[in-house]
Amino acid sequence: MELKFKRKNKTLIIQISGEIDHHTAAELRRQTESALEQMGGRNIIFGFQEVTFMDSSGIGVMIGRYKQIQSLGGRIAIACPNEKIEEIIRLSGLSRLLPSFPTLNEAIAYAEGRESDAV
Prior knowledge:
This protein is 41% helix and 29% strand. By secondary structure, the protein is of the alpha/beta class. A hairpin with a 2-residue loop joins strand 1 and strand 2. Helix 1 runs parallel beside helix 2. The model has no long low-confidence stretch (mean pLDDT 93).
């Protein structure tokens, strides 16, 4: 798994490539918390364009970040999941907490409180 972080306004964007599983979930959580602390921001967008697999460990990380961002009064979303990942998100119920969007710009608009339609 590889992570790239950038900040746009009050939103931390985390581009993920590879698998989010029991081998990588702890690292994703650690690096996300560190980036949020260092870069600031109130919202998180997880860019899933290059995510090839996610298991229950990855779902747990997403739920944990949701709780963290909620406590800050922010928003969290997933951008660009492929069909396989979108199905995992939907079947797990994660979509009730984290909306997903087909593009990064739509996810950013949602995080910043502008109009956008979640999938």
